[in-house]
Design goal:
Strand content: 25-35%
Helix content: 10-25%
CATH class of the largest domain: Alpha Beta
CATH architecture of the largest domain: 3-Layer(aba) Sandwich
Shape: globular
Number of helices: 9
Radius of gyration: 24 Å
Distance between the termini: 30 Å
Number of domains: 2
């Protein structure tokens, strides 16, 4: 029981080979009302490849799709306790995998509230009479426009400003299940990798809404009639690369493979230079400044902003483990260990300023702003069946 007297959630998680993608583990860690999970691990999932037809996409996949948030990690490395682990071999019906009857029985008799599918490929879902427990799965794409795969690719090809993502109660029609959570993240036309990282790092934010709605049988009245996209041909990938290469903010290799990592530096400014700095933004060149190294556990700092109350510079810091942002108050002086002192996150929001100033000390702190996030979380309206 929880502190408010409500029952703890009972969760089953379907995975492959004892591992999940990093964003999926972050989603599991973010689930409220559950301290443990039961793991059903499939041991024979296979993915077919057509190297001649899709070779260029597989190369792009290595550069962009495979990133720190899609990398496989052991499921036990998360914060949820593993109550039981059950391994099984799936059956196959053409390209679709089938749960063995013994696994369906086990899922039925254990009283799970929901089943989270973070592994296997296309899955033949048992009928509600056979398995009434909803099976939830993420799809990174607006199902009214972009069913199928790969995530974010066709949105960028068509110049869409956002990538949709859903958690759905899956059925036996590809990416056309009943929607229990929906959101959008910004696309970066010059970087497929940055677009995907933006989408996957925000995925855990909708998992609790999805579970609540699935249990209550509240479904978003959102159409799922979009085109079923498939892996792009070699020609489509080359055209995609050419468009990214012509973008003014980056070339193909840069946009496909790299993610921006901002830095914050501190440089001395003479008193007679302050007027130009304040009125014209005439900042010292970055080679004259000293870069502030991130505190242990963070990948980089960005968007500095001076706080008079805290007598410190607020920076946005990217948590190296969770890939989530936090606002830290960074002291202006070095600690005895040589590292910059950093207090815990102090603000639950994003704040940034391109040219923050600290007049009394005669110091200027300058940083480059991170691209803004567009995030929409849609709450359920009417119930649809």
């Amino acid at each position: 029981m929880q502190a408010d007297g409500s029952a703890r959630l009972k969760l089953a998680v379907i995975i492959d080979g004892g591992a999940v993608q990093r964003f999926a583990l972050d989603a599991l860690d973010a689930i409220e009302g559950a301290d443990e999970i039961t793991v059903f691990s499939c041991t024979n999932t296979r993915m077919s490849r057509q190297a001649l037809r899709h070779g260029a996409y597989y190369a792009l996949n290595l550069l962009s799709v495979r990133n720190r948030l899609t990398r496989s990690v052991p499921v036990e490395s998360g914060t949820k306790r593993i109550a039981r682990r059950i391994e099984f071999e799936s059956g196959y019906d053409g390209a679709w995998q089938v749960l063995p009857p013994a696994i369906v029985d086990e899922l039925n008799k254990c009283g799970f509230d929901v089943i989270l599918k973070f592994g296997m490929g296309l899955l033949r879902v048992p009928s509600e009479a056979e398995l009434p427990v909803p099976i939830l799965s993420y799809h990174h794409g607006d199902p009214d426009k972009y069913r199928g795969r790969p995530a974010g690719f066709w949105e960028m090809v068509e110049g869409a400003p956002v990538v949709g993502q859903v958690v759905q109660v899956i059925g036996n029609r590809l990416d056309a299940g009943r929607i229990v959570a929906y959101a959008e993240t910004k696309t970066f036309p010059w970087s497929y990798r940055a677009t995907l990282l933006e989408a996957f790092r925000h995925s855990p934010l909708i998992i609790n809404q999805a579970i609540r709605n699935a249990i209550a049988r509240n479904y978003l009245p959102k159409p799922c009639m979009g085109r079923n996209w498939r892996l792009p041909s070699n020609a489509a990938v080359l055209g995609f690369g050419a468009r990214m290469g012509s973008h003014p903010r980056g070339g193909f290799a840069y946009g496909a493979a790299l993610e921006k990592a901002w830095s914050v530096s501190r440089a001395p400014v003479a008193g007679d230079a302050l007027p130009k700095l304040v009125t014209g933004g005439d900042f010292p060149h970055r080679r004259n400044g000293a870069r502030w190294e991130p505190t242990a556990g963070y990948s980089f700092y960005a968007d500095p902003f001076y706080s008079r109350d805290l007598k410190a510079v607020l920076v946005e810091a990217l948590d190296a483990r969770s890939s989530r942002g936090a606002i830290l108050a960074v002291s202006r002086h070095r600690t005895p260990s040589g590292d910059r002192g950093a207090r815990p996150p102090v603000l639950p929001l994003h704040c940034g300023h391109r040219r923050p100033r600290d007049h009394p000390s005669g110091k200027a702190r300058a940083g480059r702003p991170r691209a803004s996030i567009r995030w929409k979380a849609r709450n359920c309206g009417s119930t649809a069946s």
